[in-house]
Amino acid sequence: MWLVEARTLFARARVRALLVFLAAVPVVLAVAIYRSGGPGAGNGPAFLDRASHNAVFTALAALTVTMQFLIPLSVSVVAGDSIAGEANLGTLRYLLVRPAGRTRLLLAKGIVVALFCLMTALVVVVAGLVGGAVFFPHGEVVTLSGTTIPFVDGVGRSLLAGIVVGATMFGLAAIGLFVSTVTDVPVAAMAITLGAVIVSLILDNVPEVSFLHPWLLTNYSTAFADLLRDPMRWHEIWKDLVLQAGYVAVFGSLAWARMTSRDVLA
To answer: Which residues constitute the domain of residue 119?
Structure first.
């Protein structure tokens, strides 16, 4: 069933447009850095001052730039539309006519949204690697620890960083899936889901609520940078993945409770 949902999702024009737009951002970023030389050391978002040094850092700089808003926006659109879009079009009741059941349908939707989360980040990384390889060196990579690793190893680490960032969106996807079961208005579900990211980003920069920071969606969003150290550090990444698993458990359960009790004929 999830394969059918995946084909349906990725066949939609707006989903393809989102992925194309995300792929274009790293290329535009590479061109801009190539023409301007990029910011000085220590300036701008993480990895941006190193983007012209190696294609791997171009990909990671693009990932840093897009994960703050563009990737969450894309995830919010797809997750918010997952159930609410079907209800708005009147197709939800017909989906449930099939011998699938509400739980199985919700699970299939959740798997597809999770797949989209991973796809968004990996598209950015791959496009960044391609754009970076065209304009910048693609030889040995100097890690954040000062050691040197082969380019192939750097590519592998950047792809792994994409997977980590995609998994960092799982909590947001679970929130979007829950909100999508509450309303029949997809735009409202998308806006509320994106609003959760914006609130988290704001609170994450307010020292007065530092006790909340470890529980915020975005608190460990840059933990993937530890993959470019030698050896790789996993402590912050594991904390992020556990946090996302907690969000998935809570909001996934709320989505299931709402989905199994809602009147789809109303």
So the answer is: 2-261
